[in-house]
Amino acid sequence: xxxxxxxxxxxxxxxxxxxxxxxxxxxxxxxxxxxxxxxxxxxxxxxxxxxxxxxxxxxxxxxxxxxxxxxxxxxxxxxxxxxxxxxxxxxxxxxxxxxxxxxxxxxxxxxxxxxxxxxxxxxxxxxxxxx
Length: 131
Hints:
Layout: H1 4-18, E1 24-29, E2 32-37, E3 41-47, E4 50-55, E5 60-63, H2 67-73, E6 79-80, E7 85-87, E8 92-96, E9 100-103, E10 108-110, H3 116-127
Antiparallel strand pairs: 1-2, 3-4, 3-7, 4-5, 6-7, 8-9, 9-10
């Protein structure tokens, strides 16, 4: 006879293994489901409860999740540069002026004024190897 405690422990184990963070974003396109690897994402643009995911091959996908939710699910080191923008630092080319960054895809994105110092320090020490 099964004990309720053993059954509850088994259910907790199943839930824990299902919630492991993966390095992908699930995107629904029509009846298809795409799994985008974090390395394929150049940047994400938040718009309320929706997020536009921009990829290295020039596609843009709409995901019905907040950017914060997607970042929490990803097992990658993205850089939040603005309330509406998060970039993949692997696709960062340079910083333009003090409040903009240039990505490999040619896109220029703004850096929030309150994040300029934080972004400057992080970029200089980790990504651009400056200073």
